[in-house]
Amino acid sequence: MKYTTLGRTGIDVSRIALGTMTFGQQNTEADAHRQLDMAVAAGVNFIDTAEMYPFPSTPETWGASERFIGTWMKARGNRDKVVIASKITGPADRFAHVRDGALKLNAHHIAQAVEASLRRLGTDVIDLYQLHWPERPTNFFGQLGYSHVEEDASTPIGETLEALAEQVAAGNIRAVGLSNESPWGMMTFMAQAEAHGLPRVASIQNPYSLLNRTFEIGAAEVAIREDCGLLAYSPLGFGALSGKYLDGPPPAGSRGALFPDFKRNFTDRAVEATADYVALARRHGLDPAQMALAFVNTRRFLTSTIIGATTPEQLETDLASIDLELPGDAIDGIEAIHKRICNPAP
């Protein structure tokens, strides 16, 4: 395994992180414990979760991911060996069941969310606490176009940072991070922190894959210059880049079969690009999923690639990507496809 320092925190995290949004939906508690054991055995020390996971969540399932991680850490006695990242849910009607819809990013709601996450995780501290998405109206989750709202009721960024500072001071969290955030948001959080002596953002968790390299437009420069590295989620484009959806209907039990409404990675252009990337991998004798992950793993602006799996076999394949060094002509081929079909799944 390879390791990277999380922002300017001094916390070393594995270049591959285990994402857990399937825990409690597609993976049972026993499945989750097995995945966690496999990841740690491969050198992974970074585990990412969120209060609203699994995703999609229901009133009955939300919080299960954190609970499963908590029971695993208690059973293994290894809390000091892993870095735990979690997130507070942003405002959204579809998640009104989370904390009874109390989804503002202010002091009251942040304190409530942190306390509940600590309880589910069975720990005294969360190493990295992230804002799952902005409270203000802006572009995220693949939304195209931008419509500016002059006045809204969102919690000011400075107030959110002050609330997070309170949690740091109380010893409940060690570092703070963003997710699904824009370059403007990244820089505004940085400026507010510097101006007022508040916690500095250590990372940003945004989508990044061969099908969606929009992070390179603006945010990558911020990540490098400001030591706010990317935690890349959906690096396989909802599993599309494994190639498993190219031949016939989605495999039974796959996320594509279970959640057909999530179409971003399955438009005509995205499918065309996926077919080209899979063919490129096979020409070079590479596993398509490993090629896609290896590309992400080597980006200069990256802190960690968040992998997710529903089977041990998938997880084993994904973990092995850390040792794959792509040949130059494979990288050239990737760039040629990207130039021809640029960001088909933003």
CATH class: Alpha Beta
How would you sum up the major sheet? 8 strands, parallel, barrel
> What percent strand?
5-15%
Alpha-carbon distance between the two ends: 29 Å
Q: Strand sequence of the main sheet, in spatial order? A: 3-4-5-6-7-8-9-10
Overview of this protein structure:
- The chain has helices at residues 29-41, 64-76, 107-121, 157-169, 183-196, 219-225, 255-258, 268-283, 288-297, 312-319, 328-340; strands spanning 3-5, 12-14, 16-19, 46-48, 83-88, 126-131, 173-179, 201-207, 229-233, 302-307.
- The longest helix has 16 residues, at 268-283.
- The strands form two sheets. Strands 3-4-5-6-7-8-9-10 form an eight-stranded parallel β-barrel, surrounded by six helices.
- By secondary structure, the protein is an alpha/beta fold.
- It is built from eleven helices and ten strands.
- Helix 1 (29-41) packs parallel to helix 10 (312-319), helix 8 (268-283) crosses helix 9 and helix 8 packs antiparallel against helix 11 (328-340).
Task: Spell out the key features of this protein.
TIM Barrel, 11 helices, alpha/beta, 10 strands, 36% helix, globular, 346 residues, eight-stranded parallel β-barrel
Secondary structure topology:
Elements: E1 3-5, E2 12-14, E3 16-19, H1 29-41, E4 46-48, H2 64-76, E5 83-88, H3 107-121, E6 126-131, H4 157-169, E7 173-179, H5 183-196, E8 201-207, H6 219-225, E9 229-233, H7 255-258, H8 268-283, H9 288-297, E10 302-307, H10 312-319, H11 328-340
Parallel strand pairs: 3-4, 3-10, 4-5, 5-6, 6-7, 7-8, 8-9, 9-10
Antiparallel strand pairs: 1-2
Helix pairs in contact: 1-2, 1-10, 2-3, 3-4, 8-9, 8-11
